[in-house]
Amino acid sequence: MGEGEDSVMVELKDLCKKASSNIAQKDLDGHTGEFPIYGASGLIGYVDFYKQEKPYIAVVKDGAGIGRVMSLPAKSSVIGTMQYILPNDDVDAQYLSFAMENMNLAKYFSGATIPHIYFKDYCTEKLPKHSEKEQKQISAVLSKVTELISLRKQQLAKLDELVKARFVEMFGDPVYNEMHWETKRLIDICRTIVDCPHSTPHYTTKDTGYKCIRTSAVKKNKILWEKVECISKQEYEERIKRKRPEKGDVIYTREGAILGIAAVIDRDYNVALGQRSMLLSPDIYQCTPCFLSMAMNFDSFLGKALGGVSGSASPHINVGDIKAHEIIAPPIEIQNQFSTFVEQVDQQKQTVQESLKKLELLKKALMQEYFG
Hints:
- This protein is of the alpha+beta class.
- Helix content is about 35%, strand content about 20%.
- The protein has helices at about 95-100, 120, 130-170, 185-190, 235-240, 290-295, 300-305, 320-325, 330-370, and strands at about 10, 15-20, 35-40, 40-45, 55-60, 70, 75-80, 80-85, 125-130, 185, 190-195, 210-215, 220, 220-225, 230, 250-255, 260-265, 270-275, 275-280, 325-330.
- The strands form seven sheets. A four-stranded antiparallel sheet has the order 2-8-5-6, covered by helices on one side. Strands 11-19-16-17 form a four-stranded antiparallel sheet.
- The longest helix has about 40 residues, at about 130-170.
- The radius of gyration is 25 Å and the shape is elongated.
């Protein structure tokens, strides 16, 4: 590659070649060593062999995570759901990895039952031609930004761990109750507990001022408001007949793959429940929303709730079972202390999230600048 030729476009296949892996995960039994081996979710373990002598790129070609691009080290291997992409001698592996990440390879998938992508489908993707020196400069900049993004995400994860650790320190497990707190039924520490409407919402792209929470927007102790969509005023009024969700209420997913996740409604929106969820309105003189959400997200709580689970194809938790569910009920003063601690941590998280958002926007702008 010649220096200063960044205006010239080349095809991906001109910069690398492909290779396949025939290693199944079951074949790894009995192989322990120092060489890393990877799958679609990342590092699987360490074995006593390797397939690639130099750094390379791997693409998830089958199943979950299809199209994901990984930059992997020398003297390592991947299993058969991954495709090796081996850079030419004058191509920096990290640079090519960023270029391929920018291509959004998932758009090439085919197959309904088990989605897959092939090198022949995306090998004609074009990217600017850069000298080796320019490639390394680009790689260094993007690597630094990517590293900072990873650090911010680690900070957020550690702050979440800190909150849970503080809960355990103050209260112990909310179901096993090793600290011997008084216990109460959820219905006795909530003003009301209601089920969602059993109908599919009709979402609209218009900003009507009325929102509806899908279960996919509910994560442990937080709602992804950017994923909450709008519905019409008429549908909103129909969906809140049992109870209008208010700030401080707790939403709990009760069915399907994301069963048993609680989060506090922390904003004053005109919002309704989607399907497969229930709403708990804590009695603030007995239970804080923050305490209730944290307690309901413990594995022990879900395990006990699943004791009354029904439905095998689509398991769900009945509202009646949740109403009768007993958890610890520490004095409200202590719960308020915990909630104050969580508010302080949330302020730290907000600062980290703002930094993360800026870094992600910077990376996106740089990728556009370097690769188009």
